[in-house]
Protein backbone atom coordinates (compact mmCIF):
# COMPACT_ATOMS: atom_id res chain seq x y z
CA UNK A 1 0.00 0.00 0.00
CA UNK A 2 2.94 2.36 0.68
CA UNK A 3 5.56 0.73 -1.55
CA UNK A 4 8.21 3.24 -2.71
CA UNK A 5 6.80 5.90 -0.38
CA UNK A 6 8.85 7.79 2.19
CA UNK A 7 7.15 8.87 5.40
CA UNK A 8 8.29 11.17 8.18
CA UNK A 9 6.62 10.55 11.52
CA UNK A 10 7.16 13.08 14.31
CA UNK A 11 6.86 11.73 17.83
CA UNK A 12 7.65 8.35 16.25
CA UNK A 13 9.62 7.21 19.27
CA UNK A 14 6.56 6.27 21.32
CA UNK A 15 2.83 5.56 21.36
CA UNK A 16 0.79 6.53 18.30
CA UNK A 17 3.82 7.75 16.33
CA UNK A 18 5.74 4.55 16.98
CA UNK A 19 2.79 2.36 15.98
CA UNK A 20 2.35 4.44 12.80
CA UNK A 21 6.03 4.17 11.85
CA UNK A 22 5.88 0.38 12.30
CA UNK A 23 2.61 0.08 10.37
CA UNK A 24 3.82 2.20 7.45
CA UNK A 25 7.05 0.17 7.21
CA UNK A 26 5.02 -3.04 7.28
CA UNK A 27 3.16 -1.78 4.20
CA UNK A 28 6.38 -0.93 2.34
CA UNK A 29 7.25 2.65 3.31
CA UNK A 30 10.64 3.98 4.31
CA UNK A 31 9.76 5.33 7.79
CA UNK A 32 11.82 8.22 9.13
CA UNK A 33 11.21 8.66 12.83
CA UNK A 34 11.68 12.16 14.22
CA UNK A 35 11.60 12.47 17.99
CA UNK A 36 13.09 14.70 20.67
CA UNK A 37 14.33 11.49 22.28
CA UNK A 38 17.17 10.24 20.02
CA UNK A 39 17.40 6.82 21.72
CA UNK A 40 13.67 6.19 21.25
CA UNK A 41 13.85 7.20 17.57
CA UNK A 42 16.86 4.93 16.98
CA UNK A 43 15.18 2.05 18.83
CA UNK A 44 12.03 2.19 16.68
CA UNK A 45 14.18 2.42 13.52
CA UNK A 46 16.10 -0.69 14.66
CA UNK A 47 12.82 -2.51 15.38
CA UNK A 48 11.66 -1.81 11.81
CA UNK A 49 14.97 -2.88 10.26
CA UNK A 50 15.00 -6.09 12.31
CA UNK A 51 11.56 -6.89 10.88
CA UNK A 52 12.97 -6.42 7.34
CA UNK A 53 11.75 -2.85 6.77
CA UNK A 54 13.54 0.40 5.95
CA UNK A 55 13.83 3.13 8.58
CA UNK A 56 15.96 5.94 10.00
CA UNK A 57 15.88 7.95 13.21
CA UNK A 58 16.30 11.72 13.43
CA UNK A 59 16.28 13.81 16.59
CA UNK A 60 14.76 17.26 17.16
CA UNK A 61 12.44 19.22 19.41
CA UNK A 62 9.60 20.22 17.05
CA UNK A 63 9.15 23.45 19.04
CA UNK A 64 12.61 24.64 17.99
CA UNK A 65 12.69 26.03 14.45
CA UNK A 66 16.49 25.92 14.49
CA UNK A 67 16.66 22.25 15.51
CA UNK A 68 13.92 21.33 13.03
CA UNK A 69 15.83 23.01 10.25
CA UNK A 70 18.91 20.91 11.08
CA UNK A 71 16.74 17.77 11.35
CA UNK A 72 15.30 18.34 7.87
CA UNK A 73 18.88 18.73 6.52
CA UNK A 74 19.48 15.28 8.02
CA UNK A 75 16.22 13.97 6.47
CA UNK A 76 17.47 15.18 3.06
CA UNK A 77 20.68 13.17 3.58
CA UNK A 78 18.50 10.04 3.95
CA UNK A 79 16.12 10.75 1.07
CA UNK A 80 15.46 13.17 -1.77
CA UNK A 81 11.77 12.18 -1.79
CA UNK A 82 9.06 12.65 0.82
CA UNK A 83 5.43 11.61 0.33
CA UNK A 84 3.92 11.45 3.82
CA UNK A 85 4.18 13.54 6.98
CA UNK A 86 2.49 12.47 10.21
CA UNK A 87 2.54 15.11 12.96
CA UNK A 88 2.22 13.05 16.13
CA UNK A 89 4.73 14.74 18.48
CA UNK A 90 2.74 16.22 21.30
CA UNK A 91 2.48 16.97 24.99
CA UNK A 92 -0.53 17.63 27.22
CA UNK A 93 -1.11 20.49 29.64
CA UNK A 94 -4.41 19.99 31.46
CA UNK A 95 -5.18 23.14 33.47
CA UNK A 96 -7.73 25.95 33.13
CA UNK A 97 -7.53 29.56 31.99
CA UNK A 98 -6.64 30.81 35.47
CA UNK A 99 -4.33 28.04 36.68
CA UNK A 100 -2.31 27.85 33.44
CA UNK A 101 0.51 30.36 33.10
CA UNK A 102 2.06 31.79 29.97
CA UNK A 103 4.86 29.20 30.06
CA UNK A 104 2.24 26.41 29.91
CA UNK A 105 0.53 28.12 26.97
CA UNK A 106 3.77 28.79 25.08
CA UNK A 107 5.19 25.28 25.47
CA UNK A 108 1.91 23.48 24.69
CA UNK A 109 1.10 25.64 21.65
CA UNK A 110 4.73 25.55 20.45
CA UNK A 111 4.93 21.74 20.52
CA UNK A 112 1.37 20.74 19.63
CA UNK A 113 0.51 23.41 17.05
CA UNK A 114 3.50 25.45 15.88
CA UNK A 115 5.62 22.28 15.64
CA UNK A 116 3.11 20.72 13.24
CA UNK A 117 3.08 23.85 11.08
CA UNK A 118 6.88 24.18 10.93
CA UNK A 119 7.24 20.48 10.07
CA UNK A 120 4.70 20.96 7.28
CA UNK A 121 6.56 24.09 6.11
CA UNK A 122 9.77 22.04 5.70
CA UNK A 123 8.03 18.94 4.33
CA UNK A 124 5.74 20.57 1.74
CA UNK A 125 8.41 21.60 -0.81
CA UNK A 126 9.88 18.07 -0.65
CA UNK A 127 6.42 16.51 -1.02
CA UNK A 128 5.49 18.73 -3.96
CA UNK A 129 8.84 17.94 -5.66
CA UNK A 130 8.08 14.23 -5.08
CA UNK A 131 4.82 14.49 -7.03
CA UNK A 132 2.37 15.03 -4.16
CA UNK A 133 1.50 13.33 -0.92
CA UNK A 134 -0.44 13.28 2.31
CA UNK A 135 -0.12 15.03 5.68
CA UNK A 136 -1.83 13.49 8.70
CA UNK A 137 -2.13 15.61 11.83
CA UNK A 138 -2.83 13.81 15.10
CA UNK A 139 -5.30 16.13 16.85
CA UNK A 140 -7.66 14.94 19.62
CA UNK A 141 -11.31 14.74 20.63
CA UNK A 142 -10.34 17.79 22.73
CA UNK A 143 -10.26 19.66 19.40
CA UNK A 144 -13.99 19.22 18.84
CA UNK A 145 -15.46 19.20 22.38
CA UNK A 146 -14.29 21.08 25.47
CA UNK A 147 -13.83 18.37 28.08
CA UNK A 148 -13.08 20.61 31.07
CA UNK A 149 -9.72 21.41 32.67
CA UNK A 150 -7.96 20.64 29.41
CA UNK A 151 -6.47 24.08 28.83
CA UNK A 152 -4.47 24.97 26.78
CA UNK A 153 -4.20 21.45 25.25
CA UNK A 154 -7.72 21.69 23.78
CA UNK A 155 -6.90 25.10 22.28
CA UNK A 156 -3.78 23.76 20.59
CA UNK A 157 -5.63 20.74 19.21
CA UNK A 158 -8.54 22.90 18.02
CA UNK A 159 -5.98 24.99 16.16
CA UNK A 160 -4.70 21.82 14.54
CA UNK A 161 -8.05 21.27 12.81
CA UNK A 162 -7.84 24.77 11.37
CA UNK A 163 -4.22 24.16 10.36
CA UNK A 164 -5.39 21.00 8.59
CA UNK A 165 -8.09 22.86 6.65
CA UNK A 166 -5.82 25.77 5.70
CA UNK A 167 -3.09 23.46 4.42
CA UNK A 168 -5.65 21.32 2.58
CA UNK A 169 -7.05 24.35 0.73
CA UNK A 170 -3.69 25.96 -0.08
CA UNK A 171 -1.86 22.81 -1.17
CA UNK A 172 -4.61 20.63 -2.67
CA UNK A 173 -3.88 22.10 -6.13
CA UNK A 174 -0.26 20.95 -5.69
CA UNK A 175 -1.34 17.37 -5.07
CA UNK A 176 -1.12 17.41 -1.27
CA UNK A 177 -3.95 16.03 0.85
CA UNK A 178 -4.11 17.10 4.50
CA UNK A 179 -6.32 15.43 7.11
CA UNK A 180 -6.42 15.04 10.86
CA UNK A 181 -7.24 12.20 13.20
CA UNK A 182 -8.88 12.89 16.54
CA UNK A 183 -8.24 9.98 18.85
CA UNK A 184 -10.17 9.50 22.07
CA UNK A 185 -8.30 8.20 25.08
CA UNK A 186 -5.64 5.90 23.65
CA UNK A 187 -3.83 3.46 25.92
CA UNK A 188 -0.38 4.84 25.00
CA UNK A 189 2.53 5.68 27.34
CA UNK A 190 1.21 9.30 27.47
CA UNK A 191 -2.17 8.11 28.81
CA UNK A 192 -0.68 5.57 31.19
CA UNK A 193 1.50 8.35 32.70
CA UNK A 194 -1.59 10.55 33.03
CA UNK A 195 -3.64 7.78 34.70
CA UNK A 196 -0.76 7.10 37.07
CA UNK A 197 -0.69 10.79 38.09
CA UNK A 198 -4.52 11.02 38.37
CA UNK A 199 -5.47 7.88 40.21
CA UNK A 200 -9.13 8.93 40.47
CA UNK A 201 -9.72 7.87 36.84
CA UNK A 202 -9.74 4.11 36.19
CA UNK A 203 -9.65 2.27 32.85
CA UNK A 204 -13.22 1.08 33.56
CA UNK A 205 -14.46 4.66 33.99
CA UNK A 206 -12.85 5.60 30.68
CA UNK A 207 -14.55 2.75 28.83
CA UNK A 208 -17.91 3.77 30.33
CA UNK A 209 -17.59 7.10 28.48
CA UNK A 210 -17.65 5.28 25.12
CA UNK A 211 -20.55 3.50 23.38
CA UNK A 212 -17.99 0.90 22.24
CA UNK A 213 -16.40 -0.45 25.42
CA UNK A 214 -13.02 -1.10 23.80
CA UNK A 215 -9.55 0.03 24.79
CA UNK A 216 -8.29 2.21 21.92
CA UNK A 217 -4.69 1.23 21.17
CA UNK A 218 -1.95 3.16 19.31
CA UNK A 219 -2.33 0.57 16.51
CA UNK A 220 -5.99 1.61 16.02
CA UNK A 221 -4.87 5.18 15.32
CA UNK A 222 -2.03 3.89 13.12
CA UNK A 223 -4.61 2.01 10.98
CA UNK A 224 -6.51 5.26 10.42
CA UNK A 225 -3.23 7.02 9.56
CA UNK A 226 -2.44 4.27 7.03
CA UNK A 227 -5.80 4.87 5.35
CA UNK A 228 -5.29 8.65 5.21
CA UNK A 229 -1.67 8.32 4.05
CA UNK A 230 -2.46 5.87 1.24
CA UNK A 231 -4.31 6.26 -2.06
CA UNK A 232 -7.29 4.49 -0.44
CA UNK A 233 -8.31 8.01 0.67
CA UNK A 234 -7.31 9.81 -2.54
CA UNK A 235 -10.50 11.94 -2.60
CA UNK A 236 -10.38 12.90 1.08
CA UNK A 237 -8.81 16.15 2.25
CA UNK A 238 -9.49 18.62 5.06
CA UNK A 239 -11.29 15.92 7.04
CA UNK A 240 -11.09 15.05 10.71
CA UNK A 241 -11.45 11.34 11.43
CA UNK A 242 -12.58 10.49 14.97
CA UNK A 243 -10.99 7.33 16.37
CA UNK A 244 -12.74 7.53 19.71
CA UNK A 245 -15.02 4.47 20.03
CA UNK A 246 -17.97 6.86 19.72
CA UNK A 247 -17.09 8.98 22.74
CA UNK A 248 -17.59 12.36 21.05
CA UNK A 249 -21.10 11.65 19.74
CA UNK A 250 -22.21 10.02 22.99
CA UNK A 251 -24.56 12.12 25.12
CA UNK A 252 -24.45 10.01 28.26
CA UNK A 253 -27.90 9.23 29.67
CA UNK A 254 -26.45 7.95 32.94
CA UNK A 255 -28.33 10.61 34.95
CA UNK A 256 -31.64 9.68 33.33
CA UNK A 257 -31.53 6.07 34.63
N1 LIG B 1 -2.76 9.14 24.14
C1 LIG B 1 -3.96 9.67 23.94
O1 LIG B 1 -4.95 9.32 24.59
C2 LIG B 1 -4.14 10.71 22.87
C3 LIG B 1 -5.44 11.10 22.55
C4 LIG B 1 -5.63 12.07 21.58
C5 LIG B 1 -4.54 12.63 20.94
N2 LIG B 1 -3.29 12.23 21.27
C6 LIG B 1 -2.18 12.87 20.57
O2 LIG B 1 -1.43 11.88 19.90
C7 LIG B 1 -0.08 12.31 19.80
C8 LIG B 1 0.83 11.20 20.30
O3 LIG B 1 0.52 10.91 21.65
P1 LIG B 1 0.93 9.54 22.33
O4 LIG B 1 -0.19 9.14 23.19
O5 LIG B 1 1.49 8.62 21.34
O6 LIG B 1 2.10 10.09 23.31
P2 LIG B 1 3.51 9.49 23.73
O7 LIG B 1 3.94 10.33 24.89
O8 LIG B 1 3.46 8.01 23.89
O9 LIG B 1 4.45 9.81 22.47
C9 LIG B 1 4.73 11.12 22.12
C10 LIG B 1 6.11 11.15 21.46
O10 LIG B 1 6.35 12.49 21.05
C11 LIG B 1 7.65 12.86 21.42
N3 LIG B 1 7.67 14.29 21.64
C12 LIG B 1 7.04 14.99 22.62
N4 LIG B 1 7.35 16.30 22.53
C13 LIG B 1 8.17 16.41 21.45
C14 LIG B 1 8.83 17.51 20.87
N5 LIG B 1 8.73 18.73 21.37
N6 LIG B 1 9.59 17.29 19.77
C15 LIG B 1 9.74 16.04 19.26
N7 LIG B 1 9.16 14.96 19.81
C16 LIG B 1 8.38 15.14 20.89
C17 LIG B 1 7.94 12.10 22.70
O11 LIG B 1 9.34 11.98 22.93
C18 LIG B 1 7.25 10.77 22.41
O12 LIG B 1 8.14 9.87 21.78
C19 LIG B 1 0.03 13.60 20.60
O13 LIG B 1 -0.02 14.69 19.71
C20 LIG B 1 -1.19 13.57 21.48
O14 LIG B 1 -1.63 14.86 21.83
C21 LIG B 1 -3.05 11.29 22.22
CATH topology: Rossmann fold
Helix vs. strand class: alpha/beta
Bin the strand percentage: 15-25%
What is the helix/strand order? EHEHEHEEHEEHEHHHE
Q: How many E strands?
A: 9
Kindly provide the name of the CATH class.
Alpha Beta
> CATH superfamily name?
NAD(P)-binding Rossmann-like Domain
CATH architecture classification name: 3-Layer(aba) Sandwich
Q: How would you describe the shape?
A: globular
Percent of residues in helices:
40-55%
Which small-molecule ligands are present, each listed once? nicotinamide-adenine-dinucleotide
Separation of termini?
Answer: 47 Å
Mean pLDDT over the residues? 95
Provide the gyration radius in Å: 18 Å
Largest beta-sheet details:
7 strands, parallel
Which residue ranges are poorly predicted, with pLDDT under 50 across at least 5 consecutive positions? none
- The figure for the number of domains is 1
Textual characterization of the structure:
By secondary structure, the chain is of the alpha/beta class. The protein has one domain (6-256): NAD(P)-binding Rossmann-like Domain (Rossmann fold, 3-Layer(aba) Sandwich). The protein has eight helices and nine strands. It has helices at residues 15-26, 38-50, 65-78, 102-129, 153-171, 189-197, 203-207, 218-229, and strands at 6-10, 30-35, 54-59, 84-87, 94-95, 133-138, 151-152, 176-183, 240-243. Strands 3-2-1-4-6-8-9 form a seven-stranded parallel beta sheet, sandwiched between helices. Helix 1 links the parallel strand 1 (6-10) and strand 2 (30-35). Helix 1 packs across helix 8 (218-229), helix 3 (65-78) runs parallel beside helix 4 and helix 4 runs parallel beside helix 5 (153-171). The mean pLDDT is 95. The site of nicotinamide-adenine-dinucleotide has 29 residues, from helix 1 and helix 6.
Amino acid sequence: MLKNKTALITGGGSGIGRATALEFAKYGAFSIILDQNPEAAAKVAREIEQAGGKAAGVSADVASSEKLSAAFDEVRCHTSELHILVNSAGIYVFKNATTADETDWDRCLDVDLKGAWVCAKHALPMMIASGGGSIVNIASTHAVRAQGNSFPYGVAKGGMLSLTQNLAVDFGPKGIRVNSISPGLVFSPMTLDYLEENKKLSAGQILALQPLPVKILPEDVANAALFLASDMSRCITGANLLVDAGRTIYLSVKNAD
